[in-house]
Amino acid sequence: MTTVEPKGTVHWIDHYVVGTNDLPGWSYWALHATGLPIRPINGLTTNMRKKNTPIFCFMWWDDESCRIGAFLQPENYPKAKELGKDMPRCGFYVRAEDMDKHLRRLDQHKIPHTDSVKSVENGEEGKVVCFADPDGNQYEFWAPVNLPKGAMEVHTTENVGRISHCVYGSRDLARTAAFFEKYCGMESERNAQTGEGTLVLRMHAGARLVYKLVDQLDERIAGHSPWWDMHTAFTLRDEEFFPNYRRMWDGLPEEAGAKEHLNDSRDKEDNFPARTGLHRSPVGYKWKEIYQRGDEFYDWDGHAFHFIGGLPKNADGSLALYTPKEQDEYLRELAESLKKNQAGVSNSDWRASTVDPQSK
């Protein structure tokens, strides 16, 4: 892995979020599949219902630098493809010597899964098991021959490590590679083991995005109606948070409005460009209100992402282990910048100063 850190580079996958038709059921599935403790379900009050607040649950590893979540969907999910074939998929680091124990746990709780097999398809040697939640969302236990630093230092009671990779579909791998190189500092990684029609994008700490060439996008993506809130969050350095968003706001269009209000056809949805847009969270709504740009962004194939800041825990300054800095903290910084810059500056000058950490 290169020691050179490109501008604005992504280091880890901080969290991964799916949709569900049974939020309590998903929470218990996550407990049994990974060993994560069950957390409260959000959105279950009358006042939140009046505000149309999404109903969701996040479950996180002990140091809170890695999480998975689920949002209750407004419609029943479509049937999933066979195990290992549906996308998106989320992977977790595990140790190879623990794989049999993980399989026994999946069997104990009647969680559908594949056998453990050796794999080099995505350009890296290791063992993989694919499994599914009650809604058909798919996941993988991934035990690479060489675990990156930080992969297992954060783990659950069942020795499931942090998120290792996500697998998505892309209709144009070169276009996808260019997007993530420009806005996330990730370069494509290819060797003799990489499968045909596969794009591997390596993050600086070792995690990966994997894209598979497809003719047609999978159904369960954030860019498709009526689904919402499925997304992936990337960790980057605190000082790169605003500059990365500024590059996106300067280079990408903003979506026309909240997806649930657009009522666009599937064909139109699939032909939207890469863009920024509303992140359906209290912070996201406020962000859009005060800045007129969203803090969520989409690739060219309708998959949604956003950034999380990371503060190094290690003396070497790496983000192998980090403390997350949440979006609400950045929102407060943005609001404070707004107050300081409202008087006597143009709108463009104000926009520049609010996303430039050196202006504080």
Description:
The protein is of the alpha+beta class. The chain has one domain: 2,3-Dihydroxybiphenyl 1,2-Dioxygenase, domain 1, CATH 3.10.180.10. Helix content is 26%, strand content 25%. The chain contains ten helices and 16 strands. It has helices at residues 23-34, 46-50, 99-108, 173-184, 241-251, 259-262, 266-270, 282-291, 327-341, 347-354, and strands at residues 10-20, 56-60, 67-72, 89-93, 117-119, 126-132, 138-144, 163-170, 187-188, 198-202, 208-213, 232-237, 275-277, 296-298, 304-312, 322-325. Strands 1, 2, 3, 12, 13, 14, 15 and 16 form an eight-stranded mixed sheet that branches. Strands 5-6-7-4-8-11-10-9 form an eight-stranded mixed sheet, covered by helices on one side. A hairpin with a 6-residue loop joins strand 5 and strand 6 (126-132). The model is unreliable at 353-360 (pLDDT under 50).
Descriptive tags:
eight-stranded mixed sheet, 360 residues, 2,3-Dihydroxybiphenyl 1,2-Dioxygenase, domain 1, 26% helix
Termini distance? 34 Å
CATH H level, superfamily name: 2,3-Dihydroxybiphenyl 1,2-Dioxygenase, domain 1
Unreliable parts:
353-360
User: How much helical structure, as a percent, in the residues?
Assistant: 25-40%
The top-level CATH class is Alpha Beta
- Gyration radius, rounded: 20 Å
Which geometry do the CA atoms define?
Answer: globular
Query: How confident overall, as mean pLDDT?
Result: 91
Q: Give the DSSP E fraction (strand runs of 2 or more residues).
A: 25-35%
Q: How many E-type strands?
A: 16
Along the chain, the helix and strand elements come as EHHEEEHEEEEHEEEEHHHEHEEEHH
Using the coordinates shown, work out and report the CATH topology.
Answer: 2,3-Dihydroxybiphenyl 1,2-Dioxygenase, domain 1
Number of domains: 1
Separate helix tally: 10
Main β-sheet description: 8 strands, mixed
CATH architecture call: Roll
Structural class designation? alpha+beta
